[in-house]
Amino acid sequence: MMLDGPAGNGADVFMAAHDKFTTAKDAGILAELDEKVSSIIKDEVNEVAVKTVTDDGKVYGVPVSIETYALLYNKDLVKGEPAKTMEQIGEEALKYNDASSNKFWYLTVPTDGYPAYPFLSLYGFELFGSDGKDGDNPGFNTTEFTKGLEKIAELKKYIPIKSEDLKMETMSLLEQNFKDGKTAYYPIGPWLIKSLKDENVNFGVTTLPTMDGKQMKSFSAVQNAYVSSYSKYPKAAELFALFLASDEAAQILYDKSYRITAKNDISNIKGLKDDEELRVYSEAFKSSVPMPSTKRISYYWTTMIGVLNSVFDGTLTPEEGAKKAQSDFEALVASE
Q1: Where are the transmembrane segments (predicted)?
Q2: 207-246 burial string, b = 16+ CB within 10 Å, else e?
């Protein structure tokens, strides 16, 4: 759309992940929505999602679908109610883990900035500020971030695996371990639920646990519909974008793609309103943290690769990791 919009070849309405919002807005390809349409969106769409299309009080898009992390648990391994604290999960992991048999009570990818965020943010670390838009200040030089890295270091006790084997590229192996009944707890997004059901895995979904008495919060992502500022039919385009936030569109989204609408009220969405698993994700989203939309978000992903690997493996202390994160970020900024 960056090229097609100005050239007159772009769509009137297009979809994009919310972390592209700032780049798209600054490029001038997003049309500000009509005040009446904006009012409807604010009333009917989840507040967290609305923030991802809002800048300076103006609304530039329609949130359509949402996703975040929740905690999967294997009912064949977890008897009764699932754990509510990482402390309980950790104690159980020490008794259960058997690396030679690929048995791990709890698995995640602590070496990537997305799944690591619930630990990094535990003590108040806010990536790029409270609204995720302060691209000059990632927050790496804060006590809150260092404490978050301490939690990453602690995970090594419960996940006795080298960091090189815990990367986003190996997530399919972690997912298979859960499906095979060798992992009891696995935090992940809703995209895995359908295949678990199709393969008759005996599982449940619950909210992320607490750690040190604090509720863990995950990143979240929103797929938004935007009206092109180059559209020749802005009113019609706006009405179509608004339709994507309707009950009818939400029903199609669930039936055809098994995805969660960004609407506040899902009581009219057949299937979804009674879907025990996706309802947990819908509730978890309300307290989630949307991925920052600053243009420098890519610097976070790049910086975290080296830092999280080293802290998890113990080759850097949390304090050293925080300093390296800040230094690496500054180097990337200087290279612009």
Answers
A1: none
A2: bbbbbeeeebbbbbbbbbbbbbbbbeebeebbebbbebbe
Burial track 49-85 (b if 16+ CB lie within 10 A, e otherwise): bbbbbbbeeebbbbbbbbbbbbbbbbeebbeeebbee
Q: Kindly state whether residues 300 and 189 are assigned to the same domain.
A: yes
pLDDT digits (tens, 9 = 90+) for 297-323: 999 999 999 999 999 999 999 999 999
CA distance 229 to 60: 10
CB-based contacts of 188, cutoff 8 Å, min separation 6: 69, 70, 72, 175
What per-residue confidence (pLDDT) applies to 2?
60
**Do 198 and 280 fall within a single domain?**
no
Q: Percent helix, strand, coil in the chain (nearest 5)?
A: 45, 15, 40
Residue 5 binned pLDDT confidence (cut-offs 50, 70, 90)? low
Question: What's the pLDDT at 309?
Answer: 97
Name, in order, each residue with C-beta under 8 angstroms of 130's C-beta and a sequence gap of 6 or more. none
Whether 51 and 175 have beta carbons less than 8 Å apart is answered as no
Is 0.85 surpassed by the pTM of this model? yes
Mark whether 141 and 257 lie in a shared domain.
no
Mean of per-residue pLDDT scores for the chain: 95
**Token pair of 200, please?**
């008759």
Write the pLDDT tens digit of every residue in 29-87: 999 999 999 999 999 999 999 999 999 999 999 999 999 999 999 999 999 999 999 99
CA atoms within 13 A on the CB side of 260: 32
Claim to verify: residue 209 and residue 127 sit in the same structural domain:
yes
Q: Give the CATH number of the domain where residue 117 resides.
A: 3.40.190.10
Helix (H) and strand (E) counts for the chain? 14, 13
Residues above pLDDT 70, as percent of the chain? 98
Total number of domains constituting the chain: 2
Do residues 105 and 185 lie in contact, with contact meaning Cβ atoms separated by under 8 Å?
yes
User: Under a CB-based contact definition with an 8 Å cutoff, are residues 42 and 50 in contact?
Assistant: yes
